[in-house]
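User: I'm designing a mutation panel for N-acetylaspartate synthetase and want to avoid disrupting the core. Could you give me a predicted structure to guide residue selection? Please restate the sequence first so the numbering is unambiguous.

Assistant: Good idea. Sequence first, for numbering, then the predicted structure tokens:
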Amino acid sequence: MHCGPPDMVCETKIVAAEDHEALPGAKKDALLAAAGAMWPPLPAAPGPAAAPPAPPPAPVAQPRGGAGGAGPPGGRGVCIREFRATEQEAARRIFYDGIMERIPNTAFRGLRQHPRAQLLYALLAALCFAVSRSLLLTCLVPAALLGLRYYYSRKVIRAYLECALHTDMADIEQYYMKPPGSCFWVAVLDGNVVGIVAARAHEEDNTVELLRMSVDSRFRGKGIAKALGRKVLEFAVVHNYSAVVLGTTAVKVAAHKLYESLGFRHMGASDHYVLPGMTLSLAERLFFQVRYHRYRLQLREE
């Protein structure tokens, strides 16, 4: 079963505010003005407090990220820049941790999105009481069902994770930085990679897909995910794609609010999405359900 991006992924240099000189005159001004109007700049993420230096240093221009993934001086903000080959393991770790967080969310919180599963579990508990006439045994049924949901959520999500780690996330440079139409960015704070995001073009409909977005849990709430999302939108504007699309099985409401705050429109959801790693066995159908949401941000009409 295919579980990662196809081999057709791309090389494109993102032309953001810090390197806009690469664009010619009028085209540069028009594209950057459009991006700026659509997504106003984020405030810099606060870093750890530092004692005032004495004497005060002279003003220093903010770098785009030095060797080894250095961010802005003094850790006062987040630097979003293109991925470097030396950051492969850091990016894989953030991706791994982000996906593993979905196991309990899918198993427990996700149950609220599936009323049919709730009804089935209630019927099983009622059947247990009707057969055993034991309140104790009946009370154990929900715990057993939730335990099975956790087991199958872990089984499927780990299978998906292994699949991804052996396809595009096995060699980010090869999948996203070399072929035309794709790119991979990292968020760097105090010299450490704290977030990732990728873009992959679909030339058949002139769209860009946003994927692999994840932020280290220790650095959330600083606007990093939003900054990563905007980098993909800038990429799409500069390279004249008509829309940005994404698909997600995220359960947390915060994830969906993030996409909407970036301007994405919810295009629908499906309960029949087959996640890479699923076997579609009867037990899996009973104890693992996922809802797939589609989002789209239309940049211009074709």
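For picking mutation sites, this is relevant: The chain is about 40% helix and 15% strand. The chain has a mean pLDDT of 81.
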